[in-house]
Amino acid sequence: MSSRSLYVYFVFLGIAYGETIATNSSGAFTDGVRGNCTCGGFPTSTPRAEEAPLLSQSPGLVVVCTDEGETTCKSLCLALATATKAKGPEILCYRLGDVNELKLSAFYQACDKPWTYADMTADEPLCCENSTIKVCASAQVTKSISTTTAVAF
Hints:
Elements: H1 3-13, E1 20-21, E2 34-42, E3 55-57, E4 62-64, H2 67-83, H3 88-96, E5 99-102, E6 105-110, E7 116-121, E8 126-129, E9 132-134, H4 137-152
Antiparallel strand pairs: 1-2, 2-3, 2-4, 2-6, 5-8, 6-7, 8-9
Helix pairs in contact: 1-2, 1-3
């Protein structure tokens, strides 16, 4: 998973919150409580319980509030993150303004349950200044080390 795809996904989705609804009707799901699937991005894979995501969106999927619904929600969030690769860093920088060494982690939330890490974090950090991508200091150090190593051989 490239960092671009993770960034793009969260940027395109914007901000929204899920809502749990009760139902007694039959349909594609078993009867029971249903709620929205919400995907979000945190600056860490271990946020505090009270911490809100930097970006989140409910992609319109209603799931049953069970383990099966959570699995479906996680799969959707990961698929969306994987599918969106084109302009992620640019759009994320535009949206967040100034960011330094951000490694966004993907999360999902089914119904009103807590945010759950979706086992995906950007491979490379993102740095933005005045809503424009800039080269991160960590990338400059890595490039310097690679250049020095190549010259030494």
